[in-house]
Amino acid sequence: MKPRFDIIRASRWFFLLSGAITVAGFVVFALFGFNLSTDFKSGSEVQFELNQRVPEARVRQMFASIGLPLGDTSLTVGGIQQNVVMVTLPEQLTAKQISEIQAAEHRFFPDAKQDIQVNSVDPFVAQQTARKAVYAVLAAAACIVVYIAIRFEFRFAISGIIALLHDAFIVLAAFALLRRQVDLTFVAALLTIVGYSINDTIVIFDRIRENLKLEKPDTVEELRSVVNKSLWQVMNRSIRTVLTVLIAAVILYFFGGISIRNFTFALMIGLVSGAYSSIFIASPLWVAWRSRSFKKADGGDQAAPMAE
Amino acid sequence: MKWGRLLAFLVMVAAVLGLTVSTGPKIWKSIPLGLDLKGGVDLLYAVDTPKGHPLDSTGKAALVRAIEMRVNSLGVSSPIIQLEGRNQLGQDQIRVEVAGVKNQQEAVNVIGATAQLAIYGSAKIDPKTGKIVPVGPPLATGADLKSNAHWVVDQQTGQNAVAIEFKNASLWTSITKRYLQKPIYVFLNGQLLTNPVVEQVMYTGQSEISGGNLNTPQACMDLANELNAGALPYPLTLESETSVGPTLGAASLQRTLLAGVIAVVLIFAFMMAAYRMAGLIADVALVAYGYLTLLTFAGLHVVLTLSGLAALILGVGIAVDANIITYERIKDEVRNGRSLRSAVRIGNKNAFRTIVDSNATTFIAGLIMYIFGGEGDVRGFAVALMVSIIVSLLTAVLFARAMLLTFTAAQAVKNPWWYGAPRGVVKSREAKV
Predict the structure, then answer these.
(1) Shortest Cα–Cα distance, A139 to chain B (Å)
(2) Cβ neighbours for B54, distance < 8 A, ≥ 6 positions apart
(3) What is the ipTM for the molecules in this complex?
(4) Which residues of B touch A45 (CB under 8 A)?
(5) Whose CA is closest to B357, among B399, B389, B311, B312?
(6) Which of A103, A230, B98, B317 stands the most exposed, by the fewest C-beta atoms within 10 Å?
(7) Is the CB of residue B389 less than 8 Å from the CB of residue B362?
(8) Touching check for B82 and chain A: CB below 8 Å?
(9) B256: which chain A residues are within 8 Å (Cβ-Cβ)?
(10) pLDDT digit string (tens) for A111-146?
């Protein structure tokens, strides 16, 4: 693709955009936290047995009628005859709420076999899984730094990892801002995004590395133009690749099961962010860092015209 | 046109499509689906903690780890384990959900049961029940054994037996000294298993147990597994047992699979629209990718959960990316004025390095996630990711390249338009020639 504009020169706007989303996400997170599902928050489990196969829509109506709308993943059907309702709610139910649910059960399912049973749920295990996922991602990031530092150079490694963390933050910020529920499927989405982000970034760094070998820039201006040219050379590939994975995510979001909507939503945001950050965050970051060593080498008189 | 090369190309395509259509559905069915996709069995246990010592977080972690180990020994992974509130007796409760209803009874046995092996010095017949019961305190129990019990066939008798080894060899030496030429009584879960006469003093701490129901290799392996699983930190009592539907919903799985098919068809169409014949080759390679990945999953007995599926989607993206990188490179070379054949060769070569570096990095990410992810979802994702990347290198890179080179060598088409180059590029190239 032909260069349309100078990505490196415009990079401060991209930093600003990503920074703004992340900061807004942090502010909302600090004020309201995440909208956690029972996977991560202690809550209650309500269970009762019906005389028939569980009509899921009617169970949802029943809980909505007493002001307890059910999340996408909070209703599970059990029993050999699929006649047991298991509902998780992200709060500790009060005695009043329990009696309301009981009354609602009688109203909606007069021939139910059983009164409701309420258990409290401890999110210990899901929290452990999430913690393990965070450790795993951090450990993976550390090892990726070492690998890229060996195969490319240290500055590429750090820029790539910043882009990776950027994508994770953007998705977290989006979930905090939009008040979408964070459940266990979110962990799987986050891992996928991290994998995509680093893969995408390396493809672009590889092209920059290749062009650097061919052109050997001597000044900051030349360096910027080589990187800018490399970015536009891979633009076609980046757009087409992210389009194919986005096709999958968007179709799954609109036509797949409702219970994985949070997952596919996180995937859509993360894939776009992953493709975007490789070009508009990781590469300009690397240029900014790499330019510093040029400036030092060139001395003060050259630095002035280069500063914008 | 070189018919031999074209035939070779068509044979490759036919082999992939034929294999996939004929054995694909069978392989898909043989892959066990996880609890979130297919449902399973829900077991609720009460935890017998000692009086006045409620479950603390160290205890919780130990209990969860012990249960995870036991569930994994069933050959299914990613159990959902949840600690719940107290029951009427004030005991903590723990809920374990395991995928695959087939294993229901086995799951109940393995998770809750501790194989209680005990060796006694004397026993008597209970006059009421007519059963043999132990007398006095046990000389040794399963807790005195190393966790390396395994099935063996006795060299002298040819009987099936379980080889055991004492943690402390001198304990077994002192027992065999005391009971030399006398019988000892081995009880398993309260039932007399065997009462051999001690023939000689044992100094190594190694021994074998056999007899009773322990007459098949399967029975021996089961007992060995139970002994090795070790003691649960707290005894568990089964309170309820229900089969549960998928947490992501049964109707939901059908819809999601249908959506997946639509997405795949759209990706295929997109690749053909963007790269024409080369896109079609990429699509065939993608079919091979899907087929081989599922085959590997079936071979490794991987339980497919949502996180595994997520890794597969990422794998499709990585596989498609490999082809897109290659084709864009070929277009670059065509633009630089190379002939189609040399553009295909050089483009493949240039793309290969990029693909290897990016996939190696992602593979390292997967490997580290596997090491640090612990049991469960993170590890499931990591395994699926690593499998996807290796299969993608084999299919989307090596196999797709073989198809592309063979097809190019066949010279069935001469115009780079068939490889996704725009018309303008072609004209300028022809002008040069």
Answers:
(1) 7
(2) B92
(3) 0.83
(4) 84
(5) B389
(6) A103
(7) yes
(8) yes
(9) 252, 256-257, 260
(10) 887 788 887 777 777 777 788 888 888 999 999 999
